Amino acid sequence: MWLITGGAGYIGSHVVRELTAAGESLVVLDDLSSGDPARLPAGIVLERGSVLDAEVLARVLREYAVDGIVHIAGRKQVAESVERPLYYYRENIDGLRTVLDAAAAAGVRRFVFSSSAAVYGPTDVDLVTEQTPCAPMSPYGQTKLAGEWLVAAAGRAYGMATVSLRYFNVAGAATPELADTGVSNLVPMVFQRLAAGAPPLIFGDDYPTPDGTCVRDYVHVQDIASAHLAAARRLTADPDTALVLNIGTGLGVSVAEMVTVIGEVTGHTDLVPEVGPRRPGDPARVIASAEAIAKELDWRAQYDVREMVGSAWAGWQARHPG
After folding, report:
1. Does 123 lie in the same domain as 21?
2. CA 218: distance to chain centroid?
3. What domain range is 123 assigned to?
4. Residue 206 neighbours by CB distance under 10 Å
5. Is the domain of 207 the same as that of 76?
6. Residue 178 contacts residue 225 (beta carbons within 8 Å)
7. What CATH number is given to the structural domain containing 102?
């Protein structure tokens, strides 16, 4: 039995559906601060509660005989983390420590941790490997890197098989009802601006990149979900697993290029973005090497940028008809 923390959220709900479709038994814990129960498949048990609540965690692990955890719950906005670092350390580090403490006490033997490419910070390599030195530029990235350390240490001390998955930039939706409802990520942020009759907003065009805008590795959320299933299966098959892996495509797309694709998909081919100041904590270029995850989990991304934007747009239109 798997416990999925944050399973009613954007990424979490995709992971829940992927594991459920593969025949895995699971229960979801979510405080619903950004999650929605309607995202969950019929029959999935939702326990409402915080990962900071040790009593709730202990009860859920005991009542459902949980022996594996996929920890996705946490805060994820880079700019907000710069403004509220103590909040991010509490939510992301204290929350993870509380989950690991409960897991160790309950004898949980499998643990998947939702990490981030934000652990890397500025890089001077074409492709970021898992051995690239980490120098996170934001408290968010710091909490993810420290989280990886916590997971690895707990795994060694308490006999847990562990995988930390470093997400690169997530976009898209498996179905319209699972689309990202937040506006902190680039794609829904542009949709919101278009709906308001405003031009897309780009944060900085003076980065040391070919067109001056940040370059990122965009990954379809369905690919993110399939990577979690591959990780879960690896932990079940090999109790000695201790891995940190990128989830990426190996392909870089600039913010300006992504805005162009969004314009083509949505029919706004005459978009002229507005350029604002840089956001604190944003490195110029981060593109994943996906060789390690292909080798360790036999996983590769299946979707391209246009498919990501098209599926996200279908979700936006479903929520904003007319």
Report:
1. yes
2. 11
3. 2-171+218-247
4. 11
5. no
6. no
7. 3.40.50.720
Q: How many Å apart are CA 66 and CA 79, to the nearest integer?
A: 35
pLDDT band with cut points at 50, 70 and 90 for residue 188: confident
Compute the half-sphere exposure of residue 228: CA atoms within 13 Å on the CB side of its CA. Answer: 34
167 is known as an active-site residue: no
5, 69 contact by CB (below 8 A): yes
Is the distance from CB of 223 to CB of 303 less than 8 angstroms?
Answer: yes
Are 172 and 307 in contact by the 8 Å Cβ rule? The answer is yes
Which residues have C-beta within 8 Å of that of residue 234, sequence separation ≥ 6? Answer: 163, 241, 243, 296, 297
Whether residues 101 and 13 share a domain: the answer is yes
**Catalytic residue among 10, 120, 140, 218, which?**
140
The pLDDT value recorded for residue 179 is 86
Query: Which SS3 state, helix, strand or coil, does residue 243 take?
Result: strand
Q: Partners of 2 in the beta sheet?
A: 26, 68
Q: Are 118 and 212 contained in the same domain?
A: no
What are the C-alpha distances in Å from 33 to residues 36, 182, 278, 316? 9, 12, 28, 20
Confidence at 322, pLDDT banded by 50, 70, 90: low
Please report, for residues 26, 40, 48, 54, the alpha-carbon distance to residue 61 in angstroms, rounded to integers and kept in the order given.
Answer: 11, 20, 14, 11
Phi/psi for 166 (5° steps) reads: -90, 100
For the chain, the helix, strand and coil percentages under 3-state DSSP, each to the nearest 5? 45, 20, 40
